[in-house]
Amino acid sequence: MNELDRRLLNDFQHGFPLSPTPYADMAHTLGATEAEVLAILARFKAEGTISRVGAVVRPNTVGVSTLAAITVPPAELERVAALVSGYTEVNHNYEREHQLNLWFVVTAPDTARLSQVLDEIACRSGYEVLPLPLLEDYHIDLGFDLRI
User: Fold this and answer.
1) What pLDDT score was predicted for residue 53?
2) Is the pTM of this model over 0.70?
3) DSSP 8-state secondary structure symbol assigned to residue 132
4) pLDDT tens-digit profile of 81-140?
5) Alpha carbons 50 and 47: distance in angstroms, whole number
6) Which of 5, 42, 88, 132 could form a disulfide with 67 if both were Cys (CB 3.0 to 4.6 A apart)?
7) Is residue 68 exposed (0-12), middle (13-18) or buried (19+ Cβ within 10 Å)?
8) What is the DSSP code string of 43-101?
9) Beta strands across the sheet bearing 64-70
């Protein structure tokens, strides 16, 4: 990873430019071109370094969301995780060392669609989905300083 890559990942975890030309604004700040910034982001996405570029919105302020978990046999984990990730409503999923070993967050426009996604995942995966709705909101900054 070169210095431009590191600065792009580090400097725009917070304060993404809110303008009609955010990538051009980022490029200007970094001393690069918009095409370079877009190419780096595309490479990062293809490599799996990043999963997306976008806003993080406080839960349940735009639509509805829930954390959910499934107990999946280890031999099935990769297949079920890929199925879960195939839904645009799923923000991310991750494995945990627990009986409930696959966790994910689902966001939908309304409770009907949220329920539909959870039901589809259960039906298609063959495993029960446990919804874990938000009871109390906490802000956790998921930014990481990459200037090491």
Assistant:
1) 85
2) no
3) E
4) 999 999 999 988 999 999 999 999 999 999 999 999 999 999 999 999 999 998 887 766
5) 8
6) 132
7) buried
8) HHHHHTS-S-------TTSSSEEEEEEE---GGGHHHHHHHHHTSTTEEEEEE-SSSS-
9) 90-95, 102-108, 64-70, 129-132
